[in-house]
Amino acid sequence: MRKGQILCPTDFSETASHALSYAIEMANLYQVGFRLLHVVEQPVGDENYQILAITPDELAKSMEDAAAEKMKSLLAKLDSNLAVETMIRRGDAVTEILAEAEESAAGMIVIASHGRTGFSHFLHTNVAEAVANGAKCPVLVVK
Hints:
single chain, 143 residues, alpha/beta, Rossmann fold, five-stranded parallel beta sheet, 5 strands
């Protein structure tokens, strides 16, 4: 762990902000940089049905631009002298987080869990749980 960067996926929620503070704390402790990651899910639509006024790729690009602005705003608020890299990927959150961890040889993943239980847990994919089960590095799940 002491060598690899800390990967901190974010969905810009309050819970993810809380996890980010843990990521900064861990990065300071181990004197490593950290990578802030946001995953934009690929929108689906069919131009033949005229559901979207723009193509799914245009919508995804717009979502990426909005995420980049949120990322800049988030970085401006950080009180850290550590090296911070930002990354925006497109696709399934779990797949992209695990791929980024593997490609960047992350030493640890610090991820937020929204703590859903019961029927809500059944309906929504638990990204933090899937990442913790699939990661090859340590994962800190923050509630």
